[in-house]
Design brief:
Elements: H1 6-10, E1 20-25, H2 28-41, E2 45-49, H3 59-73, E3 77-84, H4 87-96, E4 100-103, H5 110-126, E5 130-135, H6 147-151, H7 157-167, E6 171-174, H8 191-200, E7 205-207, H9 215-224, E8 226-231, H10 233-246, H11 256-278
Parallel strand pairs: 1-2, 1-8, 2-3, 3-4, 4-5, 5-6, 6-7, 7-8
Helix pairs in contact: 2-3, 2-11, 4-5, 5-7, 7-8, 10-11
The protein binds zinc ion (ZN).
Length: 288
């Protein structure tokens, strides 16, 4: 199975006003939702496994599922480990054939983040895979804070320039006002900072916390310079809502496959909307 590396899948969209959707999966149904939506849209897809959702011992099984689905549909795809915290996780992923890994030392001091990221880059590049790192910290929507406290977590442009040069990282996740999960208030994206980071960093920029962010904000972020947008909650909620609805009748008469099919269709529908919004729909031909 040949995946595109994270660097390869992002390369065609840099400076082109579109971004690749990066979707987490943890099972067969969500994997199919991602792959079928991307095949229908002729869109590239970054398929991600998040260690917090899928324990390491389950990665090989999930990988087989992803591999078979991607082979069946022949979409341009990268397989990425999302938010790895340790080099052990990175090594395990590389051994299994992931084409990209994210090392997240965003809560560590700068020097430590640089050191750990550089080590991840050495390991991954030796295997022909790419690395994404995070500078500044993208928190959780539940923690939405305002004023100086929130600004303290944003990515500093001078640090980003140094970080990219010293680590050799392939893509940089930046903190510019989005948060993971659902927002408690309205997100305030710092578009000026995206423009400055774009000018300072010669590599693709990544936006975490793409879910629950207004469409026009995502579009503007892409036009200024974001190349990869991570989405989980916006798939998770419609998926679970459809599943819950499918389970609403008499349970004795409910078919398991039909309930999951409804959930999968809901997940797929939202991924198709995202592919349109991000502008990745129709871009599969750019990889041939
Ligand atoms: Zn994230």
């Amino acid at each position: 199975m040949k995946y595109l590396t994270l660097a390869e899948i992002l390369q065609p969209c840099v400076g082109q006003n579109w971004a690749v959707g990066a979707y987490d999966t943890c099972n067969l149904e969500i994997t199919r939702a991602i792959v079928e939506a991307s095949a229908a849209d002729q869109a590239p897809a970054i398929i991600m496994i998040y260690p917090h959702h899928t324990p390491q011992e389950e990665w090989p099984t999930l990988l087989r599922i992803i591999e078979m689905e991607v082979e069946r549909t022949r979409i341009p795809a990268a397989l990425v480990l999302d938010h790895a915290k340790t080099l052990d996780q990175i090594e395990a992923a590389l051994e299994l054939g992931f084409s990209g890994v994210m090392i997240d030392a965003s809560q560590a001091p700068l020097e430590q983040n640089i050191t750990l990221t550089r080590q991840a880059v050495e390991l991954a590049h030796a295997c022909g895979a790419s690395v994404e790192a995070e500078l500044g910290h993208v928190g959780q929507g539940d923690d939405l804070v305002s004023g100086d406290q929130y600004k303290a977590h944003l990515t500093r442009v001078d640090e980003a320039r140094r970080f990219v040069a010293e680590t050799g990282v392939d893509a940089l996740a930046v903190s510019i006002g989005t948060l993971h999960g659902l927002y408690r208030g309205k997100p305030q994206l710092d578009f000026e900072r995206i423009a400055q980071l774009r000018a300072a960093c010669p590599i693709p920029l990544v936006l975490h916390g793409g879910s629950d962010t207004p469409d026009q904000d995502l579009r503007r972020a892409i036009e200024i310079g974001i190349d990869k947008i991570n989405i989980w909650t916006d798939v998770r909620i419609p998926f679970l809502r459809a599943l819950k609805q499918a389970l609403g009748g008499p349970i004795e008469k409910t078919e398991v496959n039909e309930a999951f099919e409804a959930a999968r269709a809901a997940g797929s529908a939202v991924i198709r909307q995202k592919n349109q919004l991000l502008g990745s729909a129709g871009k599969a031909t750019r990889y041939r």
